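Hey L., structure's done. Input below.
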Amino acid sequence: MIKAAKSDLNLSDEQFEGWKAVHKKYGEQMKELTKSREKEKELRDSMHEELKAILTEEQMKKFAEQQKQRKRPKH
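Output:
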């Protein structure tokens, strides 16, 4: 992708070096966010498993529906 950008965008050598630096800087941050999201999902899944032991089946269904409502985009 990065190398293709050089020819696709007709970047000068200086621009290409800047392009690579920006991608490296933000690429590392994006990797960390991905790891963070994965950890968040693991924690959420663990929490839900523990809640299943506490809540009735009907309460768990209601809780799951509430979670879906929170995830829907607000327009």
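The CA atoms of residues 52 and 60 lie 7 Å apart. The chain has one domain: 2-71.

-- N.
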